[in-house]
């Protein structure tokens, strides 16, 4: 029997997520904060606050996990956080003489705040729907949450990226159950604030190959452990 969708919880989640986003990017509320890393985190905190509020208000059984299928959180932290942070910061150091490791982890934490909402809460709440329907709903709500709704060519491209990202990150979440894992994948594009060039695209390709390979191999081992022959 499929679980019923709690539309009230989803509405509460989304209202809080959008309200926080609006306050962060459309008002001067954060203008007095001098710490740029804190500003980054506050711009993405809405989905996490919305999810936690909805779960509390409606007493939902909505399991979330940093470690997912892994034995402990150290494994996804090392593979999906430490590896990209060190790799990308190292490339930055070689090319421009700076190693923004703190920025890397701030971006990862920003991704985690979003993913608590989009995957940890909303994907879980919509999992009884057909896969394409769930992806479409999450993609549209995620796109609108960014509060950049003009129908320009660049925004339509962004909507396509959001849709593809919803599918891809959703697959990672379904395979790992780990918020650390999806936060790492989510943050790939956000790492490169000055745009994507050949070096950045190469790094993204390398990380995706490593992550996909790791997911496939670990899932085989996990399924064998759970269902031994």
Low-confidence stretches: none
Fraction of helical residues = over 70%
State the total count of DSSP E strands: 0
| Amino-to-carboxy terminus distance | 29 Å
Q: What's the Cα radius of gyration?
A: 18 Å
Order of SSEs = HHHHHHHHHH
Tell me what the structure shows.
With 229 residues, the chain is mostly helical. The chain has one domain (65-226). The chain has 10 helices and no strands. It has helices at 7-25, 36-43, 46-57, 74-96, 101-125, 131-145, 153-176, 179-186, 188-191, 198-226. α4 (74-96) packs across α5, α6 (131-145) crosses α7 and α7 (153-176) runs antiparallel to α8. The radius of gyration is 18 Å and the shape is globular. The mean pLDDT is 92. Pfam families: Rce1-like (PF02517). This is CAAX protease self-immunity. Residues 100-192 form the CAAX prenyl protease 2/Lysostaphin resistance protein A-like domain.
Question: Could you outline the blueprint of secondary structure elements for this entry?
Answer:
Elements: H1 7-25, H2 36-43, H3 46-57, H4 74-96, H5 101-125, H6 131-145, H7 153-176, H8 179-186, H9 188-191, H10 198-226
Helix pairs in contact: 1-3, 2-5, 3-5, 4-5, 4-8, 5-8, 6-7, 7-8
Give the gist of this structure.
This protein has one domain (about 65-225). Helices cover about 75% and strands about 0% of the residues.
Give short descriptive properties of this protein.
mainly alpha; single chain; 229 residues; globular
């Amino acid at each position: 029997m499929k679980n019923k969708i709690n539309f009230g919880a989803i509405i509460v989640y989304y209202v809080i997520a959008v309200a926080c986003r609006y306050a962060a990017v459309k008002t001067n509320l954060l203008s007095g904060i001098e710490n740029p890393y804190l500003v980054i985190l506050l711009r993405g905190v809405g989905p996490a606050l919305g999810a936690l509020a909805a779960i509390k208000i409606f007493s939902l059984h909505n399991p979330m996990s940093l470690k997912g299928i892994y034995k402990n959180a150290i494994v996804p932290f090392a593979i999906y956080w430490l590896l990209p942070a060190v790799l990308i910061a190292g490339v930055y150091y070689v090319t421009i003489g700076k190693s923004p490791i703190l920025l890397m982890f701030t971006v990862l934490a920003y991704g985690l705040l979003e993913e608590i909402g989009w995957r940890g809460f909303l994907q879980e709440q919509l999992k009884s729907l057909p896969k394409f329907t769930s992806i479409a709903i999450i993609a549209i709500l995620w796109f609108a949450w960014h509060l950049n709704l003009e129908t320009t060519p660049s925004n339509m491209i962004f909507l396509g990226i959001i849709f593809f990202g919803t599918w891809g990150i959703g697959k990672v979440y379904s395979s790992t159950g780990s918020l650390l894992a999806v936060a790492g994948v989510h943050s790939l594009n956000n790492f490169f604030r000055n745009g994507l060039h050949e070096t950045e695209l190469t790094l993204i390709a390398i990380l995706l190959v490593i992550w996909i390979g790791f997911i496939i191999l670990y899932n085989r081992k996990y399924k064998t452990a759970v269902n031994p022959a």
